[in-house]
Amino acid sequence: MKRVLLLFGAMFLACSVWAKGDLPTIIIHKSDGGPWAFLNLYNDILYTPAQDETHPATLDCTGSGYSACRVPRNNALSMYTSNIIGNPTVSPVFADAINQIIEASERNAERGVVNGTQSKKIAITGNRGMETYAVKGTWQYNSRGGCTMYIYVTPLSFRIP
């Protein structure tokens, strides 16, 4: 019986290695907030832009401090799935939408809802005309106020003016 379970476990692991899912645009980690964790204030906030299509951007917020865990507005998101790579005029629109989702997760956590999702739709004028994007966040808080959040930015459509 043990060999059969071991065989099924090995097969499951092999299949999970090949499984492909959507990669998030940004992964957010909140940890070690100490006594300020319930206020969502941190000491060290480090935003790392995406390196390529397989390595999403990260936002790491750690330590007890006085700064909110937010994506910087003046930073290009380096989204490799669309044509807005490095466009500083578009970046604040995406950063605002992402930060609104982070704030929604914090409000829900204050009310005791420790996991959930939030979506926003944004429209910008890009190289191909009017472009529409969906920004979706999913989160899971733990009992100590730590959180892992995944933000997905998906192009929906574009319209030539």
Question: Any overview of this molecule?
Answer:
A six-stranded mixed beta sheet has the order 2-3-1-6-5-4. It is globular and about 50 Å long. The protein has 161 residues and is of the alpha+beta class. The protein is 23% helix and 40% strand. It is built from two helices and six strands; from the N terminus they run αβββαβββ. The N and C termini lie far apart (65 Å). β5 and β6 form a beta hairpin.
What's the layout of helices and strands?
Layout: H1 2-18, E1 26-31, E2 41-48, E3 57-68, H2 91-110, E4 115-126, E5 129-141, E6 147-159
Parallel strand pairs: 1-3
Antiparallel strand pairs: 1-6, 2-3, 4-5, 5-6
Condensed summary:
This protein has helices spanning 2-18, 91-110; strands spanning 26-31, 41-48, 57-68, 115-126, 129-141, 147-159. It is an alpha+beta fold.
Oligomer: single chain
Report helical residue fraction: 10-25%
Q: Compute the CA-based radius of gyration.
A: 18 Å
Structural class: alpha+beta
Ranges with pLDDT <50 over ≥5 residues? 2-20, 80-86
Strand runs, count: 6
Q: How would you state the average pLDDT, rounded?
A: 77
Distance between the termini: 65 Å
Which descriptors would you attach to this protein?
alpha+beta; 2 helices; 23% helix
